[in-house]
Write a structure and sequence with these properties.
CATH architecture of the largest domain in chain B: 3-Layer(aba) Sandwich
CATH topology of the largest domain in chain B: Rossmann fold
Radius of gyration of chain A: 20 Å
Number of helices of chain A: 12
Order of helices and strands of chain B: HEEEHEEHEHHHEHEHEEHEHEEHEH
CATH superfamily of the largest domain in chain B: P-loop containing nucleotide triphosphate hydrolases
Bound molecules: adenosine-5'-triphosphate, magnesium ion
Helix content of chain B: 25-40%
Number of helices of chain B: 12
Radius of gyration of chain B: 25 Å
Helix content of chain A: over 70%
Strand content of chain A: under 5%
Oligomer: heterodimer
Number of strands of chain A: 0
Structural class of chain B: alpha/beta
Largest interface: A-B, 38 and 52 residues
Distance between the termini of chain A: 36 Å
CATH class of the largest domain in chain B: Alpha Beta
């Protein structure tokens, strides 16, 4: 029980907390991880959502298959991004594990951001599933040369949704019923981000809001790429999506850091 | 061709090594040797702001700790006793860097808990009572694994160390099970294991035996004295007086946010040695009778415990011979089962202190 060495360098500590810690806390806090939850929630519901909108669009003669498939297949990453990330941070509160965690000297940035990686992978996986079933069942045929670009757009959008979810997670550390906020955010994004309704049809104020939300630019890029517009023309949208996601992630971390400091002042940790 | 990779590789390895060599070890070089005290608390105050009411919000200020001083020497096992809401947990959470003091200075191993919080965190283990604060959906092993990473345990030592702490708390063989299936006592053991992972020199135990069965609680006490023997500094809170009596080198009694007595268990008992305890087991003692006993001259304190239908009246008196007669008069008409006098225990000393405060 004596002379226990601590890990070699700060850098290795950072990455271990980021990767290993992130994965462990994801398993601890992401409620939908069991197959009984995962399959219906993360695969079943998105599948029916895609089918519903594509058939609705076809029946009503509005929008193309491409429009609805790309919009919905990318949008479903926000399931994991928003709900998953909210859980992976805010559920610390329901387990009352925030105190023991914050009593450790661990690197806070790694502790916080590490939770995003498993969520991001989950998000990517749901998008991949969405595109695959669309190709199989709905005759979705994206432009092959732009497929890597489409993959990049999906990756960036999933990451930015995850960053946005982090912000909700941070709020959940302080607010009791953050899942209400997550629900509203999820459906608001479905409405505002050009998933089912072209952004141009929205009132101007809402169009402005959409620019600040994840999904908007990523879906625009994805649609262009699926139609074979060429990667270069979508670079601005991809960068904007990245910027939006990065800004939300940064805000999320700052909020977390702020809550840690103000929590020490107010004594609010682990108070339900 | 081979020069380039070798040349670029070699220096980076060397720097890696030196950085490993300079890694602080919790028990040797890392904590400042300047202070002989493990814990120094000067004039600690802590208030909480809360609000009541949903519509008409009123601000409330709770003074949880009102200016306490504490000094705990290295290697000491220090007990903090006090009634519910006295400010024990508040004090411990300030020491654990989870709460900022409203006023006063607090140092752990010479490190300031506000300005050097991160260094303090490396040196302390925090164990609290109750069954929350664990990841229910993870196994015991993964719970510990997570915290081992957060405490930056050397990866090569990690598995062995987790095995060690599981062994120490007696959870070996159960580590693969999910914590949601753990009993209260098992959860408490896991809390303890987690607090020991990084082998901190200073340990804070906030009611570590709460909800643990008698045999388990005895094991926890054994573990605590084992840790004290290994040279750890321990601050312990408990509501079980015999626990404090048998474990602690020193005890402070805190009541309503202030320290009302401090000393070794025998010193505290000695403070109550000028009195005798009269215990009356009876049925149907009314509150009015209790009040009139309390107002008798020479009565230091009156406490009543109720078990089944029987009442146990514990009266601390300065002169038993003189007061027993008066007591019997007051208890006329009450069915008295047994009346006995005895020497005060630590619990009596404690009751006297906190009822006087
Ligand atoms: N987070 C908080 N917000 C507001 N008030 C608090 C908070 N934590 C504690 N208090 C108040 O501070 C006072 C001291 O509480 P504390 O938890 O330190 O007592 P304690 O001695 O640990 O009691 P117990 O023996 O019941 O655990 C109480 O009046 C309590 O209501
Ligand atoms: Mg307490």
């Amino acid at each position: 029980m004596s002379g226990l060495a601590l890990a070699g360098s700060n850098r290795s500590h950072f990455w271990r907390v980021f990767f290993i810690g992130g994965l462990i806390s994801y398993r601890a806090l992401f409620y939908w991880i069991s197959p009984w939850q995962y399959i219906p929630t993360m695969l079943g519901a998105p599948l029916f959502q895609i089918l519903f909108f594509v058939y609705l669009g076809r029946a009503a003669g509005v929008g193309s298959t491409n429009f609805f498939v790309v919009g919905n297949s990318i949008q479903i990453c926000s399931m994991a991004g928003i709900y998953g990330m909210t859980m992976a941070i805010a559920n610390e509160r329901s387990f009352q594990t925030l105190s023991p965690i914050l009593a450790t000297p661990s690197n806070r940035l790694a502790l916080f951001l590490g939770r995003g990686l498993p969520v991001l992978i989950t998000a990517l996986q749901t998008c991949l599933f969405g595109f695959l079933v669309s190709a199989l069942l709905l005759d979705f045929r994206p432009s092959l040369p732009d497929l890597p670009g489409l993959a990049l757009a999906v990756l960036v959008t999933s990451a930015s949704c995850t960053g946005f979810g982090m912000a909700l997670g941070s709020i959940g550390l302080r607010v009791r019923d953050v899942f209400l906020v997550s629900n509203i955010a999820y459906f608001l994004m479905l409405l505002l981000c050009g998933v089912e309704v072209p952004i141009g049809r929205l009132p101007l104020a809402l169009q402005a809001v959409a620019q600040l939300l994840p999904l908007t630019h990523g879906i625009a890029a994805g649609r262009a790429l699926a139609a074979g517009a060429g990667f270069l023309s979508t670079v601005p949208d991809i960068l904007l999506e990245l910027l939006v996601g990065g800004a939300w992630a940064a805000a999320a971390y700052l909020l977390f850091a702020y809550f840690e400091r103000s929590g020490r002042r107010s004594g609010a940790f682990d108070r339900l | 061709m081979t020069v380039v990779p070798a040349g670029t590789e070699a220096p980076s390895r060397v720097t890696d090594r030196t950085s490993i060599r300079y890694t602080p070890l919790p028990l040797s070089s890392s904590h400042p040797a300047a202070s002989a005290l493990a814990v120094e608390v000067h004039g600690l105050r802590r208030t909480y702001r809360t609000t009541t009411g949903t519509l008409r919000r009123r601000r409330l200020e709770v003074e949880a700790v009102r200016g306490i001083d504490l000094q705990i020497a290295r290697g000491q096992l220090f007990g903090l006793l006090g009634p519910n809401g006295a400010g024990k947990t508040t004090t411990i959470r300030v020491l654990c860097t989870l709460l900022l003091p409203t006023a006063g200075t607090v140092r752990v191993l010479g490190l300031d808990v506000v300005s050097e919080a991160k260094s303090v965190r490396r040196q302390i283990g925090y164990v609290f009572g109750g069954d929350r604060g664990l990841y229910d959906r993870l196994s015991a092993y993964d719970n510990l694994r997570y915290f081992a990473e957060l405490y930056a345990l050397e990866p090569s030592l990690l598995r062995r160390r987790i095995g060690q702490v599981l062994e120490v708390v007696g959870l070996t063989g159960r580590e693969k099970e999910r914590v949601e299936g753990f009993s209260r006592g098992m959860r408490q053991r896991l809390h303890l294991a987690r607090g020991l992972l990084h082998d901190p020199p200073v340990l804070f135990f906030d009611e570590p035996t709460i909800g643990v069965d008698p045999v388990g609680a005895r094991e926890v006490r054994q573990l605590i004295s084992e840790l004290a023997r290994a040279g750890k500094t321990i601050l312990l809170t408990t509501h079980y007086m015999f626990e404090a009596d048998s474990l602690c080198d020193r005890i402070a009694v805190i009541s309503k946010g202030a320290i009302v007595a401090e000393g070794s268990p025998s010193q505290l008992k000695a403070a109550a040695s000028d009195r005798t305890v009269v215990e009356v087991k009876a049925y149907g003692i009314s509150d009015a009778v209790v009040e009139s006993i309390r107002s008798l001259a020479g009565v230091q304190s009156v406490a009543m415990e109720v078990s089944d239908q029987a009442q146990l009246l514990v009266v601390q008196v300065s002169d038993a011979d003189q007061l027993t007669g008066r007591l019997m008069q007051l208890l006329e008409g009450v069915r008295v089962d047994r009346i006995a006098t005895r020497e005060p225990t630590l619990e009596d000393a404690y009751v006297a202190l906190v009822t006087a405060a």
